[in-house]
Amino acid sequence: MKNYQNYDIPQDLIFKTRDILDMEGLQCSLALNPADFADISRPPAKIKNARLKLRFSAMPKEILAQGEISGKISVQCSRCLKMFDSNFSEDFTRLFPTKEEIIDIMYMVKETLALLENIQNICSSGCKGLCGICGCDRNKVQCSCRPPAANSFASLKDKFEK
Question: Please, what is the average pLDDT of the chain?
Fold first, then answer.
């Protein structure tokens, strides 16, 4: 495998299989344009920056593509609703038959970035979140609200007392 300094990496990340075979593989790294991935994350999440490290290993009948995407994403805390930056780093690996004319890495990058999104994002382990009664940020203000003592079985009480 060769590390070509002068190889013109396609902006759309669609590589020609013949080029990779001729070079006996390829190793490259590039910064990705966050605007290309604006439709990947659910708002208000937004990819701020991303970098791709890519390695192609040429074999007689297949090309192994290995990539690492790392960067920073701005997400909303599930407790206090503040936006905060979170670092990410994800890997992908895929085999491509040498019969294919092109290798579409952009598809793999988008797929990997789409799977980044967590169900819950928490800005810090000590985040107290919002008050369920008055809505104040309990990280900034100590409100005097007391949540009602909720008994999830209270509605069944009348059904069993007879």
Answer: 89
